[in-house]
Specification:
The complex is a heterodimer of chains A (about 450) and B (about 130). With about 450 residues, chain A is mainly α. In chain A, about 70% of the residues lie in helices and about 0% in strands. Chain A contains 20 helices and no strands. Chain B has a five-stranded antiparallel β-sheet with strand order 1-2-3-5-4, sandwiched between helices. Classes of the chains: A mainly alpha (about 450), B alpha+beta (about 130). At the A-B interface, helix 16 and helix 18 of A face helix 1 of B.
Amino acid sequence: MALTGRIHSRAADLRVSGVLLGVLGAVAFWNAFTYPPFGGFDADEHITYARSLLDGHGLPKGGAYYTPPGFYALAALAIRLGEALGLDQPERVMQIVNAMFVVGSGLLVLALTRLFFPGRPVARWAALGFFTCCPVVLKTAAMFHPQPLAMLLSLLAFWITAGMIVRRDYRLRLWAALAPTLACAQLVRSVSLWVAGVVLVTLIAAAVAQPEHRRQIRNALAISALAMVLLPLPWYIHLQSTAGNAVFGRGIALTSFEARWPKAFYVDSGLPDVITHPQRAELEPRFIPIVYAETWGDYFGIWSWGSPRPELTSEVNRRLTIQSVVGLPLTAFAVAGWLALIGIAARRWRENPARILAVLAPLVGLAAVLYYATRGFRADGDTVKALFLLPAVPFWAVSFGFAVDVLVERHRRVGVAALAVLVPCLLVSLAYATFAFVS
Amino acid sequence: MSDWAFLRAGLVAVGLLVVAALVGWGVETARYEDRGFQELTRCLNNEKGASIGATRDPVARSADLGALDTVIETNGVTVSVSSTPERAERIVSSYRAVGGELGPRLELRGRTVYLWERPPSPTQRQTMFDCTY
């Protein structure tokens, strides 16, 4: 009883949350200072885009021209600041800003978990622990890449939505915050379209579950949806007129059902290579295996191996194998928690319709990445990247937190035994996601 | 139903997914047929237009997937395909034990071994590499 009391005390909550956020911040900033600006996915294209805006040349004609300009406008300012400070690599300022975005996302993971599971601090701590130690989060945060900003804006939109539903507070100022946030998210990455879809569906569910607010939600939702479409509309029109495709901006058919991938791409588990050789030199391009290997390790060779980093030696492969092994129990708990949340949402969704966000976000996010991979065939699997799923990672963290909390609550001893396995796995992953460890 | 009941069902479902993945791997392994040699033959025949014949080379014939004789740009070559690079290395060792140091006439690429009549030109090597699986 005394232990339970201590766990639920505000002081303990502040201490544990503070330590976890401190670790997240320390590693994210360390990576931002040590990871080379040109080291991440398509970094040269992203930097060229930002420099094109900085030098007054407008939107680029090649490279990442199909990506909305929101991130690059900010990156241009960051580079200018870096130049004003006399940095050798002024692009590094944007990596530091990305680290801040990830710390902000960590705060929102805490806030979102509190809304989903009030009065359950273990769920919050476990969720933040998962988020802090997940390599795909820290790897992407270290890069010169728009995805951390897309994740932050998506999470902000999810948090505002969940807050409105849980508190039954649908005041105008909240809608005035939600609509521009979703519009801005679309102006950072078009992948944020699915985030807008999940938010709309959840609010419609809330309107059904809370009849006393139905009219208020319906009217505000209609105006907000209009704003969500109109604000980023100029970008979509630009992409349609210049590239012939308003969303992808390149030769990817939106509605074609032709797929060049073999059936195995969709169903193959990748065993045993997904565990023993989780890298592109030996693991064949398959959807789930790539997403898994990239989430916990480095399938494409942008973090712990691949030029100009170390070669893919057997020692490097051994470290990747360890990542694949420690990712297993963490993934199993996250997926089990998510499946449990699906069951709860299906049976008791009227109790807390906000939890529909936690059910839909990972599912729709995964479907969106699968859709993109199917449409944009690349034989080397280059269009399957775990970082595309970044806005959904916080919900895997929430699901993980929920699973740990329920287990510890129900079977204290089993829960402690599970934690004895899960915590070392998290720490091993955190070490891997700390760039100096592998450089 | 309590949260625990839902989580228990979730854990069971994850366990079933793991079992399904393991069973799928087992079935795939049991049904797996290494088509490396057939693919090599098809490629030489259909894509390179090379004539193929059975080889009488006993070392090459010891390769577990198969071996053949062909001619690329007037240079004869015996190709043997093993199931693993380690087995292919044993073929190379056998050649060296019988023929001494064969220089550029003998080449190992992955699990495929080439024994050329004369040192191959870059285009001859490339033709064979195009058909290596």
